[in-house]
Structure formats: structure tokens, C-alpha cells
Specification:
The protein has 14 helices and 15 strands. With about 475 residues, it is of the alpha/beta class. The protein folds into 2 domains: about 180 residues, Rossmann fold (3-Layer(aba) Sandwich); about 220 residues, Nucleotidyltransferase, domain 5, CATH 3.30.420. A 7-stranded mixed β-sheet has the order 3-4-2-5-6-1-7, covered by helices on one side.
Length: about 475
Amino acid sequence: MVFMPPQHGKSELVSRRLPAYLLGKDPTKLIAGCSYSSDLATSFNRDVQRIIDDEVYYGVFPGTTLNSSNVKTSAKGSYLRNADLFEIVEHRGKYKSVGVGGALTGFTVDIGIIDDPIKDRMQAESLTVRENVWGWYNTVFSTRLHNDSQQLITLTRWHDDDLAGRILKKANKDGSWHILTLEAIRERIQHPKDPRQQGEALWESRHSKKKIMGLAQADPQTFQALYQQDPRPFRDNLFVSNFQYTKHVKNVEYSVDAPIHFSVDFNARPHMSGLLMQVDWVDDGEWNGHESYWELRVFKEYALKPPKNHSKGLGEELLAEFGNNLYNGLYLYGDASGRNQTGIKGAGVKTKTHFTEVVQGLGAIGKVAEMRVPNTNPKYRGIGKGMMGRRIFLNEVMSGRLPIRVMIAPDCIELIEDLKTCTQDANGKLAKNKNKEGVEERGHHLDAFQYFLCHPKTFGKYAKIR
């Protein structure tokens, strides 16, 4: 699969140049070229023919030629050549174009190319259209493939439930699909052949970063889907609607002399979650209209999976990586429910809590850690005059209106994904949807971030959280 932004040469490479090249290398190949409409698929067909007819092409692939006449129906001794199908002279190779929803009856496919199976956002947002595309893919396109067939799907990502999204969720368990994602502005995806640094445009001379970021400001959702190949829920449904990758994700450094703030969330599945942060007061600079401000750096995350997915493992990982540097100051935050007892030792006597196990994992350093865990978690909604609930406060912080600059290291993948994709439920709470195994896959690092952010001894005072 190839995911690329619009007007960056995707169709030129995949639907025009590639079929001609493949037939030049092997004129026996049977190729199907498909797109959202028969008219677009037909235009690709004509373009492929023009490339094959070119003298330069003939100089490279003299064995791949087309009938010099337009032949619409089979005739003895003639090779077909029309807007829907052409055959390679003296070979079995063919190229057939069809719109999504069209028929491929009687046509065996060695190489199947699907270029933009969905036309626009209106179609992408229609469940009926998505179901029709999925049905056509499974009952028409896939039934023409054989054991050695190859597929190439190229598109811009309008929706996370588009054809590519469904295949990756339902039919890629064996990892047989190879994915190439080229973002318009490089954020998180790095391909070995892509020399760009973070924040650089894919085609600066044609579609500059300035132009693309203008589009991002005007319509962030379209920018994320079409240009960054990262479709998200509607902005109004997002829990953190003010998160912006290019604004908040920065290369940050860990200071050995500064205290560490360690915030955790206790869920063994899919992982035990932890965030490491440091905070500095900056009074000799200017940021977002603030002459002085707090700089909050999230420099590390833990997502511990078996066999380390337990509370003690969080402390052990922290100790192993930072050791004696933790004596410069260590503050522990997390879910208030972690104060609950987790074990029983004879005669009904309860022992240990999640937090005592974290401290135990820290060894001797655990004795100097300052526990900052409230008796109850901050409310999602304000409960007093002038008070902001968790979600509103988090969005105020991310907007930059408060003197708190959030900087997140690019390799904090789980937190970044939570900030980008987590939604709110009807009551404004963080929606933690479960998969078919009953596991809440997302939201745990976002919870850990909120526990730290809302604490009265960190930034909760700005929301009057007590």
C-alpha cells in the first residue's frame, strides 16, 4: 500500500508509469487498473497506452507493443485496443481498466492496482459507500486473484475505515502487506529512502511547507487525513482537540540535574503505562505571547508488556535507566484507585498497593520519592466557581493560552497517539473503547498525563483543582 498526499505524483507513478513498466519487463502480465469511477480508470488506461506508444519506451522495451489500430471487439488475428482493455502484440499480456463497482468477470489478475477507491470526503463519511467498496473488493476484485497475484493499493486516507483501513484491521494479521506512508510534512513516519528531517515538506518546490501549513490551519481534519495520511475522528469529538503535532512534538532533552516527575496508570493490558517529565520556569524568553512561562518536557514513556506489565516493573524500569540521578528529586503521580489494597495476607489482612509496588521496584531510592497521589481523581467537569474540569483544562493548556509550554519527545508514541485519536463520550469523559478481547487499547498514557497536569502541586492551580 502507498499512502501519499494529493497532487504529489501518486497516480502518475502507480497508475500510469508503473503498468507500462511492468508490461515492458514482462509482456505476459495480466494487469487490472481500478479507481473510484470508470471514467478515471479509463483515463489511466489511455495514458498507459500513450507511454507504451512513445519512441523512448520502444527504445527501452522493443518487445512490448500495441495494435496500431483501435480494436473494440475480438477479431481473428487482431489484438484488442480500446479505452477499457488493450493487449500486448504477440504476447498474452493485457491491461483492463474498471471503476470500483464494475465487473472483472472472465479476467484473471496477475497484478491488481486500486488507485483512490473513494472519491471525496462525502463518500468517505458514508457507511453505505464504504460497505459497497468493501463488498466490491471481496466479491469482485479479490475473486480474480490467484496464489501468485500481487496487489497495490494507493490512496489518500479520507477515513480510518476506508478500504486500506479495513484491510489492515481485518486481513493483515500475517503482515503480508507492505506499507509506504509519505506524509506531506514529515512528523512520525521515517522510510529508509526518505531523507527528510522532521518537519520538512515532501515536495517543497511544488507544495511548500508554508502552503501546506496554511491548509492545516484552515482545516486541521482534512490536513491530518489527506496530507498526513492519518485520518482522525471529527475534531468536535476529540478529547484533546487542541493538540497539534508540529506544535507540541519536539526533540527534548533530559536534564540530569532536574527532578523527575513520574506519572503512571495501572492497566496490565495492553500495557502498564508511565510518563517521565521535567519542568522548568523560563523567565528570559518569549513564547506564544508569554514573556515568562513553564516549560513542561515529556521526555520518556513506558508501555510495559508481559512479562514486565506489573506495578513493580514500572519502578524497576525507572531505576534501571536513571539510577542514582533519581536522588535529585522524584515525584510520583497516578490514578487515585492505585491506593486501593491489592493483596491479602492471612486473616484478611490486606497488603500492598499498586503504588507501594512501584516504590518497591525503585529499591532504596523509593524511600526518597515524594508521593503525589490524590484521594480522588480530578473531575471531568468543573464542580465549583471558576473551576475547570480535566478535559477543558487539558485543552486550555494545549492551546497555549496558559503559560505552560508542552513539549513531547517524538518517541512517546503511545501518548502522542492518545492525544491525536482519543475521543470523548456523551458526558465529556475520556472514551476508552474496548476491542473484541475486552481490552481498552487507548487512553492510558493520556490518563497518566492528566494525573500529573491536574495535580495541585503542578499546574492544577491554574484550573483551581484542589
